Amino acid sequence: NNTAYGIGALDAVTTGDDSVCIGKDAGSALTTGERVVFVGALAGDGHDTEDHNMGIGYNALGGAVAGGLVGGGGTAQIEGATDLQTAAVTFVTALVGLFFAWMNEKKKEA
């Protein structure tokens, strides 16, 4: 199972599974790569068979990358982050902000 949102996101996937790509052309070349998370326009757009990678932000991990830091032996990059700890804090902070923005929208709809 994969999740894609955005024009061209995950549009080449064949047998790759358990991936999430959000943004225009995020993970657009991914075919058999598995367990990747790409968020942002062009994030991970050159990955095709690489597994266990995470890129967040415009063109994060653009081009193919294998090996590195994230669980399962992948690589992580978050726009503006200089190390994995900063990347993790940046990611969680962004998610919290998105959650509260979503909650405010739901309140307006109610």
Can you summarize this structure?
The protein has 110 residues and is of the alpha/beta class. It is built from 1 helix and 5 strands. The termini are far apart.
Number of helices: 1
Percent in helix: 10-25%
* Average pLDDT for all residues: 78
- Regarding quaternary structure, how should these chains be classified? single chain
Structural class: alpha/beta
DSSP strand (E) fraction?
Answer: 5-15%
Total strands: the figure is 5
For the biggest sheet, the summary is:
5 strands, parallel
Spans of at least 5 consecutive residues whose pLDDT stays below 50 are: 66-73
In the sheet with the most strands, the strands line up as: 1-2-3-4-5
Helix/strand order, N-terminal first:
EEEEEH
- Give the termini distance in whole angstroms: 32 Å
